[in-house]
Design a protein that fits this description.
The complex is a heterodimer of chains A (295) and B (274). With 295 residues, chain A is mainly alpha-helical. Chain A has a single domain, classed as Orthogonal Bundle (MetI-like fold), CATH 1.10.3720.10. Chain A has 13 helices and no strands. The longest helix of chain A has 32 residues, at 66-97. The two termini of chain A are 31 Å apart. With 274 residues, chain B is an all-alpha fold. Chain B has 13 helices and no strands. Chain B has helices at 6-35, 55-62, 66-97, 103-115, 118-132, 138-162, 166-174, 179-190, 192-208, 211-216, 224-230, 239-259, 261-268. The chains are: A mainly alpha (295), B mainly alpha (274). Chains A and B meet through helix 1, helix 2, helix 4, helix 5 and helix 6 of A and helix 1, helix 3, helix 4, helix 5 and helix 6 of B.
Chain lengths: 295, 274
């Protein structure tokens, strides 16, 4: 029987070949092509310049350019703000929507809707809200006595405007993941803690939170990976502007490649961003394996 | 979780009420603005009671060829979903059955392909498709979307195959079935919910996607998300039309949330939350 089993497994293993071929053609080949491009002088706007091999010149240019370093700072700033707000708000919401009260299942469902909306449409509806002079957000602020804010037209506020739209879309994700984890917690430690006479806040901090930790870490990395790639909402709201206030890495690559048509430089920046994201992905996998092992 | 006292329940409902208002306002605005006459689009205070008009929807299909955009989106979405579910499922089955100490790494590695920033491969794809004459064809987007959809399907389906006992397959083998037949007749039907979940995620991803669609389509293949964005032009912003188009685009996602919520956690957290 063990012989049969291992033979079956080998045969089943051949099922991997078509998938591997598809992944090679659709993902690995374009990435290798990007690597090749990044080592070349590939300027679509200047076709008369030969597309010669230039070694690491593009990388040197990217890594020493203020614009690229600025885009890294913007990306991580945005990531820090959105992630921290999404976490505090998301965990808080998860606690609220997992209370045993009538109507909660439906409320949970409603709150999940933003996640499933195309980011372009999220961008457009927030553009509608932020719109200079006309948008409703400043009108709502004026009702509570606040001055209008130049959301997307000032370098000071544009990044906040983008963060708000992202927080609106993705806080439900943290809520959903945390709520699912909360509902699967075993009740015993709670009873013990309560018998010991601890307050609700103590129980949450010392009993619930440690149990949620692995899940929260996984969720955080998933959000970090996505935050690193953020593109669509910014494209709609500010296109990286005003000036370069909201130019994240993705927008930097876009501008180099499709505004200046400097494909080599764009590809080099892409590779640098791939390396950064690989670190995040590896950390995510580690956290996932750890939480799987502790289960 | 213990039962809340009356006061706690009231506070909970109050907080949730506030959250619901905040989170639902943008969605309400999409629906309401798509039905508002242009003159009342930004009226102060916002017109809650207005005479709804379907004019923006009519414009969408008469002044603009939005039906063509929707058909383009549907072709690309269904094409990529079918392609990805087919190839992803095969790979997932192999990964679930091969016993090798490093197979988990292979699975992670495949999943990681989904997480790479799309912008990083837009440039090579643009150049490759330009050289092949495939820019502005549905095939370009079908291929590109599979870079995200195949790894996701592999990952999700592997989870489903892992839970099907091998003894079941061996029993079928005793009855004289071959490996392919067992996969097709025994294992795959048992993993049918996984196929549905994977297909839905591939569908939503492709349907909502914007960046690749913007770069790789042209007048023949413009998808719905790109079309809605194009209604935005600095001289005459057609908010009614933008919102009407947005509403149509968000329908599949909302239907998904309302009908298969329990799969949402698994798919979006990639199984890191059970």
């Amino acid at each position: 029987m063990t012989y049969v089993r291992s033979r079956n497994r080998r045969l089943a293993g051949t099922f991997l070949l078509p998938t591997a071929a598809v992944l090679f053609l659709t993902t690995i080949y374009p990435m290798l092509y990007a690597l090749w491009l990044s080592l070349r002088n590939y300027d679509l706007a200047k076709p008369f310049i030969p597309r010669i091999f230039v070694g690491l010149k593009n990388y040197r240019e990217v890594l020493t350019s203020d614009a690229f370093l600025h885009s890294l700072v913007v990306t991580f700033k945005l990531m820090a703000v959105t992630l921290s707000v999404q976490f505090v708000l998301g965990v808080g919401m998860a606690i609220l929507v997992t209370q045993r009260l009538p109507g909660m299942a439906f409320i949970r469902t409603l709150l999940l809707i933003p996640m499933m909306i195309s980011p372009v449409i999220v961008g457009l509806v927030w553009l509608f809200l932020y719109f200079p002079e006309l948008g409703y957000l400043n009108y709502f602020l004026s009702m509570v006595g606040l001055n209008p804010i130049p959301w997307i037209t000032s370098t000071q506020w544009a990044l906040t405007a983008i963060a708000i739209a992202d927080i609106w879309q993705w806080t439900p994700f943290i809520m959903m993941g945390t709520a699912a984890a909360l509902q699967s917690l075993s009740p015993e430690p709670y009873e013990a803690a309560r018998i010991d006479g601890n307050s609700t806040i103590d129980v949450f901090l010392h009993v619930t939170l440690p149990q949620l930790k692995p899940v929260l870490i996984s969720l955080m990395f998933l959000r970090a990976i996505d935050a690193f790639k953020i593109y669509d909402i910014i494209f709609v709201l500010t296109k990286g502007g005003p000036a370069d206030a909201t130019e994240t890495i993705a927008l930097y690559i876009y501008r180099q490649s499709f505004t200046f048509w400097r494909m080599g430089v764009g590809a080099a920046a892409s590779f640098v961003s791939l390396i950064v994201i690989s670190v995040l992905i590896t950390l995510f996998f580690r956290s996932m394996q750890k939480s799987a092992a502790s289960r | 979780m213990t039962k809340l006292s009356l006061r706690q329940s009231v506070v909970t409902y109050l907080l949730i009420g506030i959250l619901l208002v905040i989170f639902m306002i943008p969605i309400y605005l999409i629906v309401a603005s798509s039905l508002k006459p242009a003159a009342e689009m930004f009226s102060r205070p916002p017109a809650i009671f207005f005479t709804p008009t379907l004019q923006h929807y009519v414009d969408l299909f008469t002044l603009r060829p939005f039906h063509r955009n929707l058909i383009n989106s549907l072709i690309v979405t269904l094409g990529s979903t079918a392609f990805s579910v087919f190839f992803g499922t095969l790979g997932a089955y192999a990964l679930a059955r091969i016993r090798h100490p490093r197979i988990a790494d292979v699975a992670f590695w495949i999943l990681s392909m989904r997480m790479f920033p799309p912008i990083a491969v837009v440039v090579p794809y643009y150049i490759i498709f330009k050289a092949l004459g495939l820019l502005d064809t549905p095939l370009a987007l079908i291929v590109v979307y599979s870079t995200a959809n195949v790894p996701l399907t592999v990952w999700l389906m592997k989870g489903f195959f892992d839970e099907i006992p091998e003894a079941l397959e061996e029993a079928a083998q005793v009855d004289g079935y071959g490996v392919a037949e067992i996969f097709w007749r025994i294992t795959l039907p048992l993993a049918a919910p996984g196929l549905a979940v994977s297909a839905v995620f591939c569908f939503i991803f492709s349907w909502n996607e914007f960046l690749f669609a913007l770069m790789l389509t042209g007048s023949n293949t413009q998808t719905a998300t790109v079309a809605v964005m194009s209604f935005w032009s600095s001289d005459a912003v057609q908010w009614g039309r933008i919102m009407a188009g947005s509403f149509i685009i968000l329908i599949p996602g909302v239907v998904f949330v309302l009908t298969c919520q329990r799969w949402l956690v698994k798919g979006l957290t990639l199984g890191s939350v059970k």
